[in-house]
Amino acid sequence: MRAQSISLVVLALALAGCAGSQGGQPQAGDTRFVAGDGKVTLFPAADRKAAPAIEGPTLDGGTASLAAHKGKVVVINFWASWCNPCRAEAPVLKDIAAKTKNSGVEFIGVDFKDDKARAQAFERTEQTGYPSIFDQPGKVALAFQGTVPPAAIPSTLIIDEQGRVAGRALGAVKYTDLMNAVTKVRDE
User: Fold this and answer.
1) Secondary structure of residue 90 in the 3-state scheme
2) Which of 14, 41, 127, 158 would you label with 170, given CA atoms 20 to 30 Å apart?
3) pLDDT tens profile 104-136
């Protein structure tokens, strides 16, 4: 129990820079997020760790879970409506999700530390075509501690068909990098 409490404190401190203030909302002009270059890092199959079981309520009133996509490649994107790099990468994710869906790849968004109404407005504007778990308290990100934590907003994780974390990108993803990584994991 003490180790779990320490893990919660460490995760909270690590993500505090991207959470902003006032219930997770940054003030006008506040651009606090952990920067990343968007480069996708793929992990050798022998070094991959099992992804945790994640599940939660979606912004559209449903439920999404990793288990519902067992045996498929799943791309999990951590985002927030207040995050400008998240807005910039949204069309890339939408396009890749649409182009890879028929080949066994699924996408799940995780709206992290956000205001629900703003997140829903973001979803209506972007029309991603895949569900996003509303994770205001950050429980989904916390579940990845001990494996490959997202560690930035935005972050993208690629889960292989065996349910292991096969790749991670910190920061806004580039189209070619993500498409190549997803295709490579899918074709393994």
Assistant:
1) helix
2) 127
3) 999 999 998 899 999 999 999 999 999 999 999
